[in-house]
Amino acid sequence: MGGSSPVVDPQGNVYVASADGYNLGAGQPYDDSDAVLELSPAMHLKSIFYLNDWQQLSGDDLDLGTSDPVLVDGFVFQVGKTDTAYLLRQGHLGGKNGEVASLPVCHGDPDGGHAVMGSVNAAGMVSVQEQISVTEALIRLRAFAFSHDRLLAEVAGDVVARRLRLG
Question: In angstroms, what CA-CA distances link 96 with 32, 50, 62, 129?
Answer without folding.
Answer: 11, 5, 17, 25
